[in-house]
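Lab notebook page, bench 4
Experiment: in silico fold of construct C2
Operator: M.H.
Input chain length: 101 residues
Purpose: comparison with the prior construct
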Amino acid sequence: GEAKSGGDAKAFGRYLGQINDHVQKAKINPRSAVAGTVVMRFTVDVDGKLLSKEVASSSGSKLLDDAATAALDRAAPFPPIPPEVSIKPLAFTQPFKFIMR
């Protein structure tokens, strides 16, 4: 049941949306002739603190990878994890799409 899955699926979905919005607001497209997608893996503590971050899948461009990493730093701290979602840190995988300007 719910206890094993780590909580309320609807609340988890809402929280994922909050995290996504929060991160996208912090993303800054570098002025470059390169486009690509960086996939970042990061862990957020129950109080919203960024515990770890890493490039899970590189865009092939250091500039874009660094921009995605910087977006997570700017986004921290994150909204706290609601108790009905989880009482332990959560790991997220988030793609960052960068387009040419």
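Observations: The two ends are 48 Å apart (CA to CA). The CA atoms of residues 69 and 77 lie 14 Å apart.
Next step: discuss at group meeting.
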